[in-house]
Specification:
44% of the residues lie in helices and 26% in strands. The chain is an alpha+beta fold. A six-stranded mixed β-sheet has the order 5-4-1-2-3-6. Strand 1 and strand 2 form a beta hairpin. The model has no long low-confidence stretch (mean pLDDT 82).
């Protein structure tokens, strides 16, 4: 795969929104997730079954931080390796409560994807300049 971190997270968010089982799982959770991929930070908010994504600084403190290089995040999002495996291999750093860590482990296990969709320049610009909502 040859896409930018922003494209990876966007594609993942799109796949989550298309999966009705995952949406039911997300319905009862509110979590602000911060991905730090190389030198890029992307915030993803799960709230009431809606997923919002932005690169803009947010006022709230993230519930969880996932930090790693592009290759490690790609392995996580595609399901090549589990979150706990990547943590054990020290390829990903995660800062969160234990409860949020269990939630994330479940989410990534359920939501691995194939990177085969294209993201438009307008969608990238929307994320860069504000919030994009997956509905």
């Amino acid at each position: 795969m040859r896409c930018l971190p922003l494209e990876m997270i966007y594609t993942w968010g799109t796949s989550l929104q298309k999966n009705s089982s995952i949406l039911l799982f997300l319905q009862s959770h509110k979590i602000l997730l911060s991905f730090e991929i190389d030198n890029e930070t992307i915030f993803v908010l799960f709230q009431n079954g809606v997923i919002d994504m932005t690169k803009q600084a947010v006022d709230d403190i993230p519930d969880a931080l996932i930090k790693g290089d592009k290759g490690a995040i790609e392995k996580l999002l595609t399901g090549d390796l589990l979150l706990r495996e990547l943590i054990s291999l020290k390829q990903i750093f995660v800062q969160s409560s234990f409860r949020k860590l269990l939630f994330l482990e479940s989410l990534f296990k359920l939501a691995h994807l194939q990177f085969n969709s294209e993201i438009s320049k307008k969608q990238l610009d929307d994320i860069e300049n504000g919030v994009i909502r997956f509905i």
